[in-house]
What we know:
4-stranded antiparallel β-sheet; 19 helices
Amino acid sequence: MRSLPVADPGAPDARSPFRYLCWVARNQAGPLLIGAGYATLWWLAMALVPMVMGRGIDAVRTKDTSALLTWGIVLLVLGAVQAAAGILRHRMAVYNWLAGAYRTVQVTVRQATRLGATLPRRMSTGEVVSVGNSDIAHIGNAMDILLRGSGSVVAIVAVTVILIGTSLPLGLTVLVGVPAMALAVTPLLRPLNRRQHAHRDLSGELSTRAADIVAGLRVLRGIGGEQVFADRYVTESQRVRRAGVKVASVESLLEGAQILLPGLLIAAVTWLGATFATRGEITIGQLVAFYGYAAFLITPLRTLIEAADKLTKGHVAARRVVRILSLEPEVDGGAATSPGGLLRDVASGVAVRPGTFTALAAATPEDAIAITDRLGRYRDGDVDFGDVPLDTLPIAEVRRRILVADNDAALFAGTLREELDVAGTASDDDLADALYAACATDIVDALPDGLDGHVAESGREFSGGQRQRLRLTRALLSDPEVLVLVEPTSAVDAHTEARIADRLAKARAGRTTLVCTTSPLVLDRTDHVIYVEGGVVRAQGTHRDLLATAPAYAAVVTRGES
Length: 562
């Protein structure tokens, strides 16, 4: 099977779930049409079998050997066509399922990358995870059912034409019965859509709860709160179960309708055919053909009801995707350029001098976080980079030139080398220097495979201090024009902290660096310290000068111990 296509570079239509599904279908229109063609050929080959068998039976009754041989060959050809078309139809069905599902993954990941820090503020983890867990399957099913659904419509039309040509009452029975059957299941679709939407939302909330519990399990055990959160999870899971039962109650009615309604129609066709045969209005072969059509029609009629179910589920799944695609980043950029220079946050007065190792000591951590978010362009703010407003630069350029590394940065699964050297351009000497500066050499030495050792999800095999040093190594290897570090030594012991402070100052000598910290060991090794209280700069100077001249600063960095 050929490889899946990359999503269309054009933006998907996110105005409604229906428009999104249409966008997905348009982007794979060729494979859908080919698959629908194979499905139509497959259905028609099956639809013609009862007619050919009826002709053959009539040939036996009239002892017409030539006609019997002819219809036998035709039946053989139909069987071969049905087998070949069925194989090709299934291949295209799998292709279209995968294309629809993973095109959704592509556009969702692309949108998540575009939103950046906006996404976790606007949507929960569970909602995003549910797209990849279940919604892509329903969207893929919606694309898949289009093939069999369109072919089944053609098959029903073909059978209706054959029946009308043989017996007008039988043909009209099918012609009227199929739309009536479709109308009979329509009242079930609206409550199904509503209940599936509620179930999806509750499932997303439950996934968020589970992610929070797993991420904070160590803390919960430390305070004895794991049972409380486990009880909450059980309560919410029961809400999801009840919502699932409500969905299943409607789906069970729909499943029952797939059996009952086609069965009633088939019974009517069979009864009429038998009646006409006893009257001599049709031949024995035609009666057998009518019975064959009655049995055959069950499958395309059930396919139509299945299509209604899967398209409804696809619509509900697309609603969540559209919710993500409709979000806009909280910050955007322009097309200006900047030669670099002084990085200044106007609101607070914090100015990071080029080529200096600067420290930001804030009375409250929230002040430091707010300032670094503005300096890194993760939130709107009046920030200048040189003589150019930061919000006029392209976001990609800001991310390339200004790196904000905090303790929320994730470690991903993979080899340690790939995790540290994200660009894949660092030499072994560069890696060794960065590991030395972050005092992380011992971490690599302890691994059996060294840098080629495997890192588990979130680096869970490492302690908090080890993860912090690995994050610092990764930031140093990126070697940005401006590096902003938020509490890079908060999880290490005092001895390691002092070594990191010494080595970090040497590793970033001559380059612009801002460290947000209140550790005296780090502050004493910086070129310039900025003290912030109440969101604005209150004092500046060297660490020792501020200890002597700024009592508030001294109280913060010495924890009230002079």
